[in-house]
Write a structure and sequence with these properties.
Number of domains: 1
Structural class: mainly alpha
Helix content: 40-55%
Shape: elongated
Distance between the termini: 32 Å
Order of helices and strands: HHHH
Strand content: under 5%
Length: 95
């Protein structure tokens, strides 16, 4: 079955990491998130359509000297883990 993920808007607040490194990390973030999601067994078992209006992601602590690839992977993992948790619960969080 074909799965589709559409993210209308993504707000990230990254402090302490140089802007050029953040920009480099964001390049390819979508592909990395999709790879992380593909590895989530529970998401492969879901059926039907589910809309998630707001996705809360926990704070991620990273060192200032983190490289772009590791930052990208860390953010992608946090997004996919939060998405998996939300899908497994079956409904959006209360505002």
């Amino acid at each position: 079955m074909r799965r589709r993920v559409k993210i209308d808007r993504l707000h990230l607040r990254i402090r302490g990491v140089p802007l050029h490194r953040v920009r480099e990390a964001l390049n390819g973030l979508g592909d990395q998130v999709l790879r992380q999601l593909a590895d989530q067994e529970s998401l492969r078992r879901t059926t039907g359509k589910q809309r998630i209006d707001t996705l809360q992601v926990n704070t991620i602590q990273v060192e200032r000297a983190i490289n772009a690839e590791r930052l990208r992977t860390t953010v992608a993992r946090a997004l996919s883990d939060s998405l998996r948790s939300q899908v497994e619960r079956g409904s959006p969080p209360e505002a």
